[in-house]
């Protein structure tokens, strides 16, 4: 198809996926100059940056992207940034957006599509994640922590410290368990103690609000949704 259109439509490109069973590049054929290879990160571990060599899943992706970089002129990526088992469940991947954007830039990626959750309102910190993604794609060398703190302080105001504490809680839990955080993780890492700790954090956050904080209360309610979901699905303690 690419060959058939390249003379009549010199500015047109054929876009094809390197996705699941087609993620590994071919050994004996090469994409034409008017073909875009769109590599997908669907099997990766999003608890760690893609450059992390301690992750078996990410090492495999490193190998594939380097191989594609050698044989194609037009390398694009379809990247996953929310959880697709349930958009509202806790998915602590805030710390990988900027390192991953930098990784892509360093491996010849010309176009980056960050797949979020457009059809599901109030997904896990969708506004914060959208802000971090936009900043990281625009400039992969930014200090993502500065952008993270900027958003939290401006958007959550006096309850920002509690949001920060909650994010640290769940990020540390995933790291401690060395859990592979896939794009469709079913949150097997979540447990009773983590839910209870999160509930305590949010109880303290809600206690800071008064009748003048209607807008902030709404934002905090949406921030609390992932904890409520976790409380529904985490294993209880039964005697």
Describe the protein in words.
- The structure is a single chain.
- This protein is of the alpha/beta class.
- 46% of the residues lie in helices and 10% in strands.
- It contains eight helices and four strands.
- A four-stranded parallel β-sheet has the order 1-2-3-4, with helices on one face.
- Helix 3 links the parallel strand 3 and strand 4.
- Helix 3 packs parallel to helix 4, helix 4 runs antiparallel to helix 5 and helix 5 crosses helix 6.
- The relative contact order is 0.12.
- The mean pLDDT is 96.
Features:
10% strand, alpha/beta, four-stranded parallel beta sheet, single chain, 239 residues
In percent terms, what proportion of residues is strand? 5-15%
**How is the biggest beta sheet arranged?**
4 strands, parallel
Number of strands: 4
Mean pLDDT: 96
Whole-angstrom Rg: 20 Å
Question: Order of strands in the sheet with the most strands?
Answer: 1-2-3-4
Based on secondary structure, the structural category is: alpha/beta
Residue windows where pLDDT falls under 50 for at least 5 positions: none
Order of helices and strands: HEEHEHEHHHHH
Tally of helical runs: 8
Helix content: 40-55%
| Gap from first CA to last CA | 65 Å
Characterize the overall form.
elongated
């Amino acid at each position: 198809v690419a060959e058939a259109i390249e003379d009549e439509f010199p500015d047109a490109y054929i876009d094809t996926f390197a996705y699941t069973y087609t993620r590994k590049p071919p050994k004996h054929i090469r994409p034409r100059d008017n073909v875009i290879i769109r590599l997908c990160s669907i099997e990766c571990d999003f608890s760690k940056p893609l450059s992390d060599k301690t992750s078996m899943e990410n090492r495999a992706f490193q190998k594939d992207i380097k191989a594609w970089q050698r044989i194609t002129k037009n390398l694009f990526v379809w990247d996953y940034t929310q959880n697709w088992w349930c958009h509202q469940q806790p998915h602590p991947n805030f710390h990988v957006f900027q390192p991953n954007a930098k990784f892509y830039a360093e491996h010849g990626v010309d176009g980056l599509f960050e797949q979020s959750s457009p059809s599901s309102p109030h997904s896990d910190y969708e506004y914060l994640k959208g802000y971090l993604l936009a900043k990281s794609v625009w400039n992969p060398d930014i200090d993502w922590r500065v952008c993270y703190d900027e958003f939290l302080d401006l958007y959550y105001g006096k309850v920002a410290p509690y949001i920060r504490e909650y994010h640290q809680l769940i990020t540390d839990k995933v790291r401690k368990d060395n859990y592979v955080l896939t794009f469709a993780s079913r949150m097997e890492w979540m447990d009773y103690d983590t839910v209870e700790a999160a509930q305590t954090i949010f109880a303290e956050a809600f206690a800071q609000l008064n009748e003048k904080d209607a807008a902030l209360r709404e934002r905090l309610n949406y921030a609390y949704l992932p904890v409520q979901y976790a409380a529904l699905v985490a294993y209880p303690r039964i005697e």
